[in-house]
Amino acid sequence: MKVSTRGRYGLRALVDMTIHSNNAPVSLVQVANRQKISLNYLEQVFGTLRKAGIVVSVKGAGGGYKLARDAESITVKEVLEALEGTFSIIDRIPGEEQDAVQEAIEKLVWSRIDETVNTFLERFLFQKCIDCFINPA
């Protein structure tokens, strides 16, 4: 799986927003400027993250976005799946008939890779991304 700019920029913008939030909403204009990402693009990304329950938007003066939950309860898998969809190393075509060789490879190789990556992303908390930025040792 190659993570698209949507996933990469989304994760980057979330880390930026969180480290600059001081528990207050952060303007996407500020995030876009710091990260050199198009504001229109970030608005689309954050709309998706809002629908997924990862961020909340705050209207009015001093408004912006903030995490919907504590960073320790958000997984990187949750963020990437909201932005990219379900992870799979190969494209699976629903209803496609497979022969015995295809089924064996699916079971022994592709499904195991998918499981390993999904387990890693599930265990990797968003808070670790923030911690790594704050303490890059």
Describe this entry's structure for a reader.
Strands 1-2 form a two-stranded antiparallel ribbon. It is mainly alpha-helical and 137 residues long. The longest helix is centred in the C-terminal third of the chain and has 24 residues. It contains 6 helices and 2 strands, in the order αααββααα.
Please give a handful of descriptors for the protein shown.
137 residues; 2 strands; elongated
Main pleated sheet: 2 strands, antiparallel
The helix count comes to: 6
Q: On the 0-100 scale, what is the average pLDDT? A: 89
Low-confidence stretches: none
Helix content: 55-70%
SSE topology sketch:
Blueprint: H1 5-19, H2 28-35, H3 39-51, E1 55-58, E2 64-67, H4 76-84, H5 100-123, H6 126-134
Antiparallel strand pairs: 1-2
Short overview:
The chain has 137 residues and is mainly alpha-helical. It is 57% helix and 6% strand.
